[in-house]
Amino acid sequence: MSASTQYTLKLVIQYDGTRFVGWQRQANGMSVQALLEEALHTITREQVHVEASGRTDAGVHAWGQVASVKLSKRVVPIRLRLSLNALLPEDVAVLSVEIVDDGFHARKSAKSKRYRYTIVNDHARHPLLRRTSFHYAQKLDVAAMQRAARALVGKHDFAAFVKETPRKRNCVRTILSASVTKNGVVLHVDVTGTGFLYNMVRIITGTLIEVGLGRRPESCIADLLQGAPREAAGFTVPPHGLALVEVNYSSSEVHDLPRTPPESEDSA
Amino acid sequence: MSASTQYTLKLVIQYDGTRFVGWQRQANGMSVQALLEEALHTITREQVHVEASGRTDAGVHAWGQVASVKLSKRVVPIRLRLSLNALLPEDVAVLSVEIVDDGFHARKSAKSKRYRYTIVNDHARHPLLRRTSFHYAQKLDVAAMQRAARALVGKHDFAAFVKETPRKRNCVRTILSASVTKNGVVLHVDVTGTGFLYNMVRIITGTLIEVGLGRRPESCIADLLQGAPREAAGFTVPPHGLALVEVNYSSSEVHDLPRTPPESEDSA
Questions:
Q1: B265 is a domain residue
Q2: C-alpha distance from A62 to closest chain B C-alpha (Å)
Q3: Of B44, B70, B100, which residue sits at a domain end?
Q4: How many Å apart are CA B92 and CA B95, to the nearest integer?
Q5: Are A51 and A67 in contact (CB under 8 A)?
Q6: A186 contacts B263? CB cut-off 8 A
Q7: Rg of chain A on CA atoms, in Å
Q8: How does pLDDT run across A34-54, given as a tens digit for each residue?
Q9: Which of A9, A122, A164, B230 is most exposed, with minimal Cβ within 10 Å?
């Protein structure tokens, strides 16, 4: 009996993370991975394992999560995308399906990922942005946050920016770009890197907020990157402001500037 | 007994229209007006009537609806805003409260309003945009839509762009600017005018979509503005893609270009 031929598919997936326990299948609630694997099983009758570029936590969104899956029967990508989107609930959709080289692996082949944390910095909360942003009412000094964020770029020990877990790991990671931008009352913290630690972008953002309040000096990020412990950094902002924006696979795709995103609107 | 002194307030209100029967109080469901009047009554113990710049239909959103209200006791605007936002549910918020001249009336004093209709023009639906945009999968020729939209500007008879109602009204309105812009898969139809008819922006958008499909010539808008009947224009797009963006009160605020809105993101 020879092993049957396998086809490797690359899926780009968007989801509103509000009601999920996260990307990964878990006993205590609905996950994006479980929904996708069930939909793929319904269509192909195969038991499949869907591998993502990385896990996203409960409540975290994805504009363009990437996943890979191996199927033993060949499929028509466009038809599979249509079938999947017909089966998936309104808060998950497959934006594209592609047949790729067998060596492709959503996590191992990824060259970099971009995360965006969105803050609404206004006295009042903004209902139309409530699901995808963190409302922070106290006035923030955005220029100070921008200057502080520059120190993140490069290869550093991010031990201060990782949630404490029982087993201690290597916390050295490489950040390709980091920026804080403001448009009206909306602030975006964009971080592109080759790898991320647990809660890393949320602790970076909380620390930058403390810089924006004047409670920490702008130089604090550089200081914290000298191997400081978790408790030396700022608070962890809530998950609903975070989104995985995109995953890049070819090194030529790695860029310093985020791609122009579509506009939203807010009169304030 | 002399009438007590009255204070006029201007409120800027944002709401996610998804679960409302619209701005206006109605017997068949929850309205934004009823929520605001109840919250104001709870705080001031006065029976108040809140007047908006205009009604928005069921499912339509507002980034900056404006309302006026008269109170017999003087209030501290910032404190009233905080109290209102503490009482209002998460899908409605008061962005600002101002004491204004007694002559101010949210509807009668308005010089112009800007509406935005958002279309996601992609094969796949986009879950993170599903509440505030209309998913339209067939490819649209945006340049043709842009050229067609130019004919809307000026004083015209919009009888073709109004939902048929039993009593026939004067359908002459003035549009100050109209544009179709594209950013990735997101299209925005922005229309600024001194007054709008029932379903006007939604019928304009449906007609522009038919131009974008090549089913109608670009010149059709100009032709329809020669007093054509409703059935000569295009379909009515659904309400959840529509938002009242802003209301302008001083003539100096009337501008041809929409203000820069904050960014959103979408990797596709």
A1: no
A2: 8
A3: B100
A4: 10
A5: yes
A6: yes
A7: 20
A8: 999 999 999 999 999 999 999
A9: A164
